[in-house]
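[step 3/7] fold_predict: job queued, chain A
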Amino acid sequence: MRSLSISSFTRSRFQRDGYLVINEFVDHDMLARLRAAADLAFQQVVDATLAARATHPRLTWWRLPDGQPYVFKIKPVLDLAAAFTEATLSDALRSLTSAILGVDAVLMEDKVTYKTALTDEARWADLPVLGEDVRKHSDAAYFTARGFGRVVTVALCLDDCPAAAGALRVWPGSHERPIRHEPTRNQGPVVVDEDAPEEQAVTLEAAAGTLLAWDAALVHASGPNSTGKPRRLLVLGYTASSA
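[step 4/7] structure written:
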């Protein structure tokens, strides 16, 4: 992974906007290994689910309106492939997140998001029916309930993430102001539209190997993956080591 130092300007911009984009952060060799690890995790969890006809505890999935099962994420993944461990414990990521937090950072969450529909209809599965969109939300709403303080989320793009693939959308500066949430039945607390108007959103289109980092209090969302190609992110949460 690309080792770099964070300037005071970059740090202050992160504090202001709540997010950061670093191109070509993951080299080709590590990228290939992480893609293979994501494939392995998918096989271990999704294939096991379909074979056993019982949802694996690591799997988050639902049914699309057309009836297709849709895999959103597998969590946790750290112990499923050595490449995940190597990436999350790399000096490059730890120094980056520590610089952003201003203290020594430690990993507190790991997952891979897939955004992919299955060809197996899994008729046996009693799943909620939802769309592909991930609605506006703030991860801090979940982390605070679990007793965590400030968290920096890092996503390594394992595939190209154009807008059509459901690229991350963020609301710059929203981490610095009170944000109202409303409960939903199957998608947790979501941000009310008045607090995050669509015209204020920024879409973070990114090539494979890009690192996206954002303050967990930042409002973000993503749309459907309509490309027919993989759109996998290795998503990691870091917090202060004293937390």
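[step 5/7] annotate
The longest strand covers residues 105-117.
The first helix runs from residue 8 to 17.
exit 0
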